[in-house]
Amino acid sequence: MDNQKIMELFEAYFDKYKKTEGDMSSWSAYWTIYGQGQNFEINLTKCPLGTRFKIFSNHQKIEEIAGWEDFLANLDRLESEHPLFTRSDFFTQMEEML
Fold first, then answer.
1. CA atoms within a 13 Å half-sphere pointing along the CA-CB vector of 9
2. Given this model, what pLDDT does residue 97 score?
3. Residue-wise DSSP of 6-61
């Protein structure tokens, strides 16, 4: 799946499922995949600091990436470090909810 398609899917998913973080200035939407007793989640947050991607593995926050450019540049690394995460599978499942 190419980067443009990933951005379009995640933005559409965000628009449909976003929730406020409590103060109406921050909004987020997340997608989680499960397998083999594990989980992997990406939370897209839009706030005064900009667009952020919070990455969780097994309910533990492992990193935060600022902006689309850095997020897309890190997808290969995320796939290699987290076997449960495969971008085509992750974003295809997300697309099914739209």
1. 19
2. 94
3. HHHHHHHHHHHH-EE-SSSS-EEEEEEEEETTEEEEEEEEEETTEEEEEEEETTEE
pLDDT given for residue 83 in this prediction? 92
CA–CA separation, 46 and 93 (whole Å): 22
Which pLDDT value is given to residue 36? 87
Predicted confidence at residue 24, as pLDDT, reads 84
Q: Give CA torsion, residues 54, 92, 79, 1, to 10 deg.
A: -110
CA 93 centroid distance within chain? 12
pLDDT tens, residue by residue, 4-25: 999 999 999 999 999 987 788 9
At residue 90's C-alpha, the angle toward residues 87 and 93, to 5°, is 140
Q: How far is CA 84 from CA 2, 17, 49, 90, in A?
A: 19, 23, 29, 9
Burial 50-73 (b: 16+ CB within 10 A, else e): ebbbbbbbeeeeeeebeebeebbe
